[in-house]
Amino acid sequence: MEMALVRDIVDQYPYVAMDTEFPGVVAKPIGTFKSSREYLYKALKMNVDMLKLIQLGLTFTDEKGSLARHNGELCVWQFNFKGFSLADDVYAQDSIELLKQSGIDFALHETRGIDVHRFGELLMTSGIVLNDDVRWITFHSNYDFGYLLKILTCQPLPNTEQEFFELLNIYFPNIFDIKYLMRYCDNLHGGLNKLAEMLDVQRIGPQHQAGSDSLLTSFTFIKLANKYFQGIDGASKHMGVLFGLGVDGAPESKCHDNGS
C-alpha cells in the first residue's frame, strides 16, 4: 500500500530526502591498507555487512521544496524494521541509547516491524531507485547508502570502493550529500542539527528518528541550496560525491592499523 503511494507521487515529487538509523559502528579493519581511503571503505563494508538496519525515513518534495501530498495529507515515511535483536546482535551501546532516548521501541519493532528482505523487494519496484529523474538528498550518507545497497542487492557490499560507487551510481544515479556541499559554504560546520540551527530551519519531530531526520534533511537542503548556490541547479554540479568517501576521501597514502 505505502509503496504504491510512493510510485504515485515520485514523478511529481522527485526529490527524496533519506535518513537511516542503524546500530552504530562496532568494528574496524586491522592490517595494512594501500591508502586511508581503502581503510575507510573497508570499515564501512565490515560494519554494514555485520549489522542490521533499524529505520529508514523518506521525505518527498518538488524542486521548490514543497512537500508531497496525498488526498490533502502531507507525506513523510518512517519504516521500522524487525530483525535487530538487543539480545543477539552486536551494536554500539551509545548509538542504541540515543535511539532508545528518541523513542524507538525495539520490542515493538520485533513484533510489528517490517521484514527488511520483503521491503527490499518492494523498494526495487517503487520507482525511486534505478531512476535517473530522482534526486536523493542526504547528510553524510556513506552508511545510509551502504545499508540500502545491502537490502536492495541481498548481498554483502562490494570488496572495493570503486565497485561500491559503480553499484551506487546504478541504483542512485543522482545524490546530493549536504555534508559535502558544506565544503563550498563559508562558516558552515557541524552535523545536521547544528547546520539546521545555523540556517534557521526548525525540526519537526524527535531527533534520531529517521522520519524526522529525513524531513529536516529536506528542509535544510532547500535552504542551503537557495542561500549558497542560487538554487538546486547551482548545487547540481556537486552531485554524486559522498562526504569522506571516493573522490572526497582522504589523500592516497599508506595506512596501517593494528587494532589499538
Find the structural class using helix and strand composition: alpha/beta
Count of domain modules: 1
- Taking pLDDT < 50 over at least 5 consecutive residues as the criterion, the unreliable ranges are 250-260
Read across the widest sheet, the strand sequence of neighbours is 6-3-1-7-8
Order of helices and strands: HEEHEEEEHHHEHHEHHHHE
CATH architecture: 2-Layer Sandwich
Look up the CATH topology.
Nucleotidyltransferase, domain 5
Kindly provide the name of the CATH class: Alpha Beta
Mean pLDDT: 92
Describe this structure in words.
- By secondary structure, this protein is an alpha/beta fold.
- It has one domain: Nucleotidyltransferase, domain 5, CATH 3.30.420.
- It contains eleven helices and nine strands.
- It has a five-stranded mixed β-sheet with strand order 6-3-1-7-8. A two-stranded antiparallel ribbon has the order 2-9.
- Helix 5 (116-124) crosses helix 6.
- It is globular and about 45 Å long.
- The termini are far apart.
- Residues 250-260 have low confidence and may be disordered.
Keywords:
260 residues, alpha/beta, 9 strands, exonuclease, two-stranded antiparallel sheet, Nucleotidyltransferase, domain 5, single chain, five-stranded mixed beta sheet, disordered C terminus
TL;DR?
Ubiquitous transcription factor required for a diverse set of processes. It is a component of the CCR4 complex involved in the control of gene expression. This protein has a single domain (2-252), classed as 2-Layer Sandwich (Nucleotidyltransferase, domain 5).
